[in-house]
Amino acid sequence: MFGRDSDDNAQRLRFTRRTLLIGAAQAGVFGLVGSRLFRLQVVEGGRYVPLAEENRLNVQIVAPMRGRILDRFGELLATNREGYRVVLVPSLAGNVKEVLALFARLVPMTEEDQERFVQRAWRQPPNVPMVLAGDLTFEQIAEVNLFAPQLPGVRTEIDSRRQYFHGRTVGHVVGYVGVVSRLALDDDPVLRLPGMRTGKSGVELGMENILRGAGGQIKHEVDSRGRIVRDIEQREPVRGSDIVLTIDTKMQARTLARLSREKSAAAVAMDVTTGEVVVMASVPQFDTSEFADPTAGRALRRMQTAQLNPMVNRAIRGAYPPGSTFKMVVALAALEAGVVKPKERIACEGKFELANQVFRCWKRGGHDSSDLHKALRESCDVYFYELARRCGIDAIARMARRLGLGQTFDCGIALQKSGVIPDAEWKQRRFGKGWLGGETILAGIGQGFVLTTPLQLAVMMARLATGNAVTPTLVRPAPGEQFPVPPALGIRPEGLDAIRRGLFAVVNEEGGTGHAARLNEGTARLAGKTGTSQVSRASSERANSDLRWEERDHALFVAYAPSALPRYAVAVVVEHAGSGGAAAGPVVKELMADLLAQDPTARPAYSGVPGDSTIRADGDRG
Q: Are 428 and 309 in contact (CB under 8 A)?
């Protein structure tokens, strides 16, 4: 009897120890869990509450409507055309593969495309929409909506596409839009939207941030599986601002009609006081309307591989040796440095010798002796060889930059080339070699390393005509604002006056190389300078007519008018056309006569933007 009691006591004792051990273990576990919960909810609550809130909410970005582009008189150049598209939200679709198979019966889609969308749905966040098809007809959209109950996650949307007008006339200026090619972490979230398009060239790219606008937002509440429960908040997108250009479309069209007689050429015309670019023409041309449909990629590749590449805007991307149009830069540099006087005469026997090198004048028999006036009028190379030798390359480069060469301008258009205005530092940095005296001589007549664009040459002429640091622009100021007043160049007036008299003589005096640009008697006079820039050594040995087209010299002409009270500056480059006076001079004459007769910057420009002119899917303009 006592033995049984002892066994019961021992068993109870063992049970009590086990209970205590288990209880202690449980208390320890609960203590750890409680401690962790306290840390997560109290100590680190400020960190995890926003994360939990983000998991509960999904933010969808809404694309803004792109701003329009108009010419200086309100002619519509670029707007938006409303169409239809279909998107799929993977988180709402369930079985994406089955949904796509059914959708392909309504809108043609290959099995390869279906598989590509399935793979993409696995890779991307589940709430990010995928564009299944765009540019659909109203009938197609109606059919998709009819089968909406059998197509979970599929929705139809109004799609905005760019619509261009006068595409061949202003294509290089306006540019075009395309899909976003690459993204950075700090880019606008709008750019990550499916099918989003941004500017790729011209004003579309140069004014991208203004034209794009600001995206809107829709906040959704989602469940643990990412499915949308309800809409919480919505912020409408802000439409991009409209841009009014300084370009006169009709003047641009007439200029292009004249330039199209050439294989490749460019022209720029600008107001010398405000810097407004009224004409920026380049041939061959391209039509922006070809980039407004789904086949734009193929059209772009076709034109980029076409002969002479019509996609290149030669007015801002064509880098040419300026030839004799650079001689005003050299003359002003020498006058400012005090190494020559306007009346000093320099002998020309048809050649110039330096360090056992011979540099020829274009007139083999020479010009006898010339002062600045005669040297400019007859474009004597030897005179400017000597001026270049006297003042040196660094002084020439400083004056060139002062006159607007060797730089790009914040004028609203993208992808400009800066050209090359060389000096000793530039050559050391570029080639690791010192500057040679013979290179200064070549730069004295705008050859060697010197490269400029037609836009820069037009700016140079505007600055020579006014004595002010005129800056070009292709965008008119907002209503109520004015063009900025350009500061003075700080160049001595007597030097500028001597250059202007010489430029007048080039066109209007006997022996001038630019007589082909002389305006009709009784009209305002034109002042300008011819230029013939050598492309290959062959042109110095044989006549241009005996050479292949691509070996011939470029023809240049720069001018301003009226000479007494300058209004417009013009620069024309005709590629591989030979003599600047013979090939480019008549183009300048026609363009300047047209500018003075029509005087576009004197007429009232478009200043208001009444309403929207979006092109709807039915073809009407709203």
A: no
Residue entry with tokens 């008697």: 521
In DSSP terms, 532 is beta-bridged to: 555
Question: How far apart, in whole angstroms, are the C-alpha atoms of residue 130 and residue 121?
Answer: 8
Q: How far apart are CA 284 and CA 302, in angstroms?
A: 14
| DSSP helix/strand/coil, 310 | coil
Alpha carbon distance 431, 425 (integer Å) = 10
DSSP codes of every residue in 541-581: TS-GGGS-GGGSPEEEEEEEE-SSS--EEEEEEETT---II
The answer to whether residues 453 and 322 touch, using CB atoms and an 8 Å cutoff, is: no
Q: Which two tokens stand for residue 320?
A: 């040419």
Burial class (CB in 10 A: 0-12, 13-18, 19+), 476: buried
- CA gap 151, 101 in Å, rounded: 10
Listed in sequence order, the residues at least 6 apart from 541 whose beta carbon sits closer than 8 Å to its beta carbon are none
pTM listed for this prediction:
0.84
In this structure, the number of other CB atoms found within 10 A of the CB of residue 109 comes to 17
Angle, alpha carbons 266-268-274 (nearest 5°): 170
End-to-end CA distance of the chain: 108
- Which pLDDT does position 231 carry in this prediction? 63
Q: Which residues, including other chains, have CB under 8 Å from residue 112's CB and lie 6 or more apart?
A: none
Q: What is the pLDDT of residue 589?
A: 96
Rounded distance between C-alpha atoms, residue 262 and residue 26, angstroms: 93
Exposure on the CB side of residue 506, measured as CA atoms within 13 A: 32
Handedness of CA 308, 313, 315, 320 (dihedral sign): negative
pLDDT at site 622: 39
109: Cβ contacts below 8 Å, ≥ 6 apart: 100, 103, 132, 133
Structure tokens at 16: 């009590």
Measured in degrees and rounded to the nearest 5, phi and psi for residue 578 equal 90, -130
Q: What is the mean pLDDT for each group of 10 consecutive residues in the chain (622 residues)?
A: 59 67 74 69 56 57 87 95 84 84 88 87 78 83 86 82 92 91 68 80 95 79 60 78 96 96 96 97 90 61 75 96 97 97 95 91 92 96 97 97 97 96 96 95 96 98 98 93 94 97 96 91 86 76 72 94 96 92 94 95 80 44 40
Surface-to-core class of residue 291, CB atoms within 10 Å of its CB (0-12 exposed, 13-18 middle, 19+ buried): buried
The token duo for 617 is 């899917």
- Closest CA relative to residue 278, chosen from 245, 311, 230: 245
Lateral strand order in the sheet of 57-62? 57-62, 216-222, 228-235
Q: Where are the domains of the chain?
A: 61-244, 249-290+313-602
315: CB partners within 8 A, 6+ apart: 172, 266, 267, 268, 280, 281, 282, 453, 454, 455
What does the alpha-carbon distance between residue 379 and residue 406 come to, in Å, rounded to a whole number?
A: 23
For residue 439, list its beta bridge partners: none
pLDDT of residue 619: 38
Superfamily of domain 249-290+313-602: DD-peptidase/beta-lactamase superfamily (3.40.710.10)
Q: What is the 3-state secondary structure (H, E, C) of 453-477?
A: CHHHHHHHHHHHHHCECCCCECECC
Considering the segment(s) 61-244 as one domain, its CATH architecture is: Alpha-Beta Complex (3.90)
The alpha carbons of the chain give a radius of gyration, in whole angstroms, of: 35
Query: CB under 8 Å to 520, separation ≥6 — which residues?
Result: 593
Q: Which amino acid is at 436?
A: L
Closest CA to 131 of 139, 123, 142, 120: 120
